[in-house]
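Continuing the batch. This is chain 6 of the set; chains 1 through 5 are on the previous pages. Same settings as before, nothing changed between runs. Recording input and output for traceability.
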Amino acid sequence: MKISFRDAAEFLVTHDNYIILIHDRADGDCFGTATGLASALKIIGKNAVIASPGKIPERLKFINTSGVAVLEGKEAFE
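Output for chain 6:
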Protein backbone atom coordinates (compact mmCIF):
# COMPACT_ATOMS: atom_id res chain seq x y z
CA MET A 1 0.00 0.00 0.00
CA LYS A 2 1.38 3.33 -1.01
CA ILE A 3 0.56 6.45 1.00
CA SER A 4 1.55 10.04 0.41
CA PHE A 5 3.80 12.08 2.67
CA ARG A 6 0.77 14.23 3.52
CA ASP A 7 -1.26 11.15 4.59
CA ALA A 8 1.61 9.89 6.72
CA ALA A 9 2.02 13.30 8.37
CA GLU A 10 -1.72 13.52 9.04
CA PHE A 11 -1.67 10.08 10.67
CA LEU A 12 1.23 11.06 12.92
CA VAL A 13 -0.46 14.30 13.96
CA THR A 14 -3.85 12.75 14.71
CA HIS A 15 -2.58 9.86 16.88
CA ASP A 16 -0.73 10.18 20.18
CA ASN A 17 0.68 6.78 21.16
CA TYR A 18 3.20 4.73 19.21
CA ILE A 19 5.01 1.43 19.69
CA ILE A 20 8.03 1.08 17.45
CA LEU A 21 8.78 -2.61 16.94
CA ILE A 22 12.30 -3.63 16.01
CA HIS A 23 13.73 -7.01 15.06
CA ASP A 24 15.66 -9.38 17.30
CA ARG A 25 19.44 -8.91 17.40
CA ALA A 26 19.00 -5.33 16.27
CA ASP A 27 21.80 -3.70 14.31
CA GLY A 28 22.77 -0.04 14.35
CA ASP A 29 20.50 0.89 11.45
CA CYS A 30 17.49 -0.67 13.11
CA PHE A 31 18.03 0.64 16.64
CA GLY A 32 19.32 4.04 15.53
CA THR A 33 16.36 4.61 13.24
CA ALA A 34 13.89 3.50 15.91
CA THR A 35 15.51 5.82 18.46
CA GLY A 36 15.45 8.74 16.02
CA LEU A 37 11.80 8.16 15.16
CA ALA A 38 10.82 7.85 18.83
CA SER A 39 12.73 11.03 19.67
CA ALA A 40 11.08 12.94 16.81
CA LEU A 41 7.64 11.78 17.95
CA LYS A 42 8.38 12.94 21.50
CA ILE A 43 9.48 16.35 20.22
CA ILE A 44 6.03 16.86 18.67
CA GLY A 45 4.33 15.79 21.91
CA LYS A 46 3.62 12.13 21.17
CA ASN A 47 4.25 9.04 23.32
CA ALA A 48 6.63 6.50 21.82
CA VAL A 49 8.11 3.24 23.09
CA ILE A 50 10.66 1.02 21.36
CA ALA A 51 9.95 -2.71 21.77
CA SER A 52 12.49 -5.41 20.98
CA PRO A 53 11.91 -9.18 21.22
CA GLY A 54 15.48 -9.59 22.52
CA LYS A 55 18.09 -7.62 24.40
CA ILE A 56 19.64 -4.60 22.73
CA PRO A 57 23.25 -5.59 21.98
CA GLU A 58 25.92 -3.99 24.19
CA ARG A 59 27.65 -2.58 21.12
CA LEU A 60 24.61 -0.29 20.57
CA LYS A 61 24.41 1.07 24.13
CA PHE A 62 26.23 4.24 23.00
CA ILE A 63 23.09 5.38 21.15
CA ASN A 64 21.41 8.10 23.19
CA THR A 65 17.94 6.94 24.22
CA SER A 66 17.33 9.56 26.90
CA GLY A 67 13.64 10.26 27.20
CA VAL A 68 12.70 7.18 25.16
CA ALA A 69 11.46 3.99 26.80
CA VAL A 70 13.12 0.85 25.46
CA LEU A 71 11.47 -2.46 26.37
CA GLU A 72 13.54 -5.58 25.81
CA GLY A 73 12.67 -9.29 25.72
CA LYS A 74 9.49 -10.59 27.31
CA GLU A 75 8.91 -7.25 29.03
CA ALA A 76 8.27 -5.70 25.62
CA PHE A 77 5.32 -7.96 24.89
CA GLU A 78 3.56 -8.35 28.23
